[in-house]
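Problem statement: downstream parser choked on a complex file, so we are re-checking the raw output for the adenosine-5'-triphosphate run. The parser issue turned out to be on our end (a line-ending mismatch), but while we're here, posting the original submission so the record is complete.
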Amino acid sequence: MATTLPRPSRAPLSDPPASLPPLPSSRPLPGSPKTPSSNRTVSSSRLPTSQAPGKAPSTPVPPLPTGQLTEPRSALPTPLSNAPLKSPIGRTPTTVRKVVSISSFPQPPKGNGRFMSHSSSPLAGAQTETRRGSADTDCSVNRETRSKGGKMKTHNGGVALRTSSLPGKGGEPRTGPNGRGSDALLSIPSPPHSRSSSAQGSDSTGATTLDESGDAGNKIVSATQDAKLKREPSNKDGKGNVIVSVRIRPDLGTAEGGKSNEWLFDGQKSLLAYRGREGGDYYYDNVFTPDDGNDRVYASSVKRIVRRVMEGYHGTVFAYGMTGTGKTFTMQGTDPQPGVIPLAIRDIFSYIRETPRREFLLRVSYLEIYNEKIHDLLAASSTNGAAVGINSQEEIKLREDSKRGVYATPLKEEIVQSPTQLLRVIGRGDMARRTGSTQFNARSSRSHAVVQIVIESRDRTGGNSSVQGGKRSAMNPGGVRVSTLSLIDLAGSERAAESKERRTEGAHINKSLLTLGTIISRLSKDKDKSGNTTNAEDRHLPFRDSKLTRLLQPALSGNSLVSILCTVHLSLAASPAGNATETLNTLKFAARAKNSIVSHAKKAEESYGAGSGDAGSRVLLERYRMEIQDLRSQLENQAKAAKDVEDQNERIKEEKEAEQRHEEQILEIQLARTALKERIEHLTRLILSSKSTGVNSSRSFSSLSTRVRNTAASSDTIVAKPLRSSTSHSTLGVPRPASVRTSSAESADPGSPTSNLENSPTTPGEMGSDEEDSVGEYGNGRASVGSQVRALQADLADRNQYILTLERRLLHARRSSHSRTSLQLSPPHRMSEATPEDNVRRLLDEKDAEIFDLRARLDDKERMIAALRTAARKREVAEMTSKRNHRGSVHSRKSSFGSSTTNTNPVSPTTPSSFLASDKRLKPVDEVTRILDEMLQDRVGPGTQGRRGTVRFSDDIKPEVVVDDVNGLEIVKGEAHAM
Ligand SMILES: Nc1ncnc2c1ncn2[C@@H]1O[C@H](COP(=O)(O)OP(=O)(O)OP(=O)(O)O)[C@@H](O)[C@H]1O
């Protein structure tokens, strides 16, 4: 079985590190040991060709000693049955000078590969079946550009090497042209000290694997170890933690260089061979032919890393190569052919869309290292493509942090939310980047440009919430994971330039690239069991010798997944200018990188809280979440406070309104009381007291008593009918019974009607019996005075009661009036115009006017009452006088004089004859009183203008005018009813 086959020996990558990359001078780099080519040369003619294609050898082959130079291929016990290398013109290449042994390189893809010389590439389309997967296609299925026939193309287009021994599709064992039977190596375990180990279950190349758990580093077998070390299973997809690819730039139809049969490549086998001096076969994870577009380059070498970055790993992609070979084209691309950066951005956002359970925050920075100085390309504004103010920037330094690693500061970072925005930001940085014309590139990048996309992500549902002492609930999302994708377009290495500026730039560029090469080279040196380099000098890795290597330190030290895209231009390499060395150096750099970078990339840990220090505070997602929480609670508090204030204002407003209403009511009551008191005083003054002139006459009192009795007897209704009833009768339009108001009670207190009420007779019977008692007790005029006083007191009590009623009604009227006024003011437009003060003022004015009106009317009526009282008093006096006279005449007639009763109209000295003359026309006092009451009712009826409760005469009852001749007053009589 092929699995027992030992590995064929490999030529070690023993080229001196100093030779990579080349210095601008054309002279060989010092200390650049050369492996004797004779020992390394394999004549293609000596390669076994007899074996049938696809057939693996059955004979086990012992491994060659480590470091041993390759034997001629024909001598190798290799299962290969390589076809002879042929030039397109049928010339068999004489030698394959060196077989570059990269033990961990991925195996060539299945199928019938075919080596092609570079120059044949334009024709390759006719011979190859190109089935490039879209950029979305997974790498493992995307390498379907298959050249039929297993031919290796030469640069000038010839078929150089037939790799008929390669297996076809279907996972058959496959051997490389140099005898690397992948399956042959499967069962050989890696030694403990091997730097090349694959994580279990990882999907990677034999050399580098992605360690999902992040524990085991993935190691690369150095070339020197290659022969003796056992091989890891090789992954045909060539994907791992470190992916090294070489891209061959197509000729663009210009006379850029020469054609050569010395350069051969086979994209299918990821092989690039140089048949010239110091040449050899170089295997990589990918060799992209000139036919391969950016999408294929991305899908095979970067896509997987981008996905891993989204999952929490750090990733670094950089393009390396001499000037004009297509680094910028590969990284940026063009509109029809977007490069790695735009394709990565597209995938980043696709991943975000496909992962709803996590939330993301993206920020981007863009810097360039120009002449060993770092410039922020986003901080510099650009005008018409020219960087403005880039030189006046604050110096950007590199710092190191245990969490962040090496980083540039201060550096502007922009938060981006869409692919378009991200592309726009990067495009802005591109505008600010330095470019210049070189010998091989009209628009050459003169600086190393680093786009850094920081991805913060967090599980929305809380993730492993228990880690925080169980305090985090589902409401609190999980910890924040921060990963970084660095996309680097290095400046091109260049030989001596003509202009001074270009030379200075070139010197810096080459120095940094040289340092990078040195580090890569030293990393690939032999290591002892503990992983230390055996050579003491090689233990020192000069990361600090250049800004570029310092910045790349975390990635080169294994913290990151790495994809190196090396670009070559074989036409240039074959040009008479002698760029073959440069191209070779690029290939060697790529080979060493593949062989030396140990990536033990781990998923970034999730962090909780904003943390402390710069590293912690950079977790913007967490900071923003906390800020959002903080702002939310502030908002809630403010809303609560606002509501409290609103409630308080409402309460204050209500209290003010209530207070105002209360004040208004008090004012109204006071006004009403004042008015009523005044009226009572008036009325009290009008009522005759016992001390009044004329009342103290005994004759008068006796006659008064008689009159009262007579009046009471003549009337069906009893005196001292409470005015309450009178009022209600009046209101209902029913004629009120007459009341007797014939005397005054000096002691009556208008302010305390209750006390008067208590003493006042409430029933007609009481009143009547009192009168009778009084008459009976005294039997003269004096006896009736007491009765009169009681009657007056009763009358006063009634009036007080009446006042109370009036007060209530007045209050009620005010309220109704107030509410009507409010309603009138209520329309929105008026409300918005009138302030509450205006309303109150207007209301007060109305009330004042009303009070004034009422007072005026009250005055009128009081004057009328006064006149009527006077008239009534005179009439009563006259009556009493006439009765006394009558009794006297009867008595005298009965006794001695026998005087006649014909004189019915005796003239009293106190009674004017005119009053007596008008006796017939005068109406009883109680009727007048009733009219007055009704008039008073009119005064206090509901409504300010007496609309309701106003006393009106009905149409069918004509008011009767009684003329008081004594006072010259006209008294209107008539049955009234409330309207
Ligand atoms: N694969 C390719 N297909 C088509 N054109 C390409 C390809 N690669 C490079 N080119 C073209 O070659 C020219 C030089 O390429 P580019 O500027 O990318 O080289 P570079 O390596 O970035 O050079 P420098 O280091 O000087 O910046 C450009 O015009 C570019 O469009």
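For whoever reads this later: The pocket of adenosine-5'-triphosphate is lined by residues 249-250, 252, 321, 323-329, 438, 441, 444-445, 491-492, 567 (CB under 6 Å).
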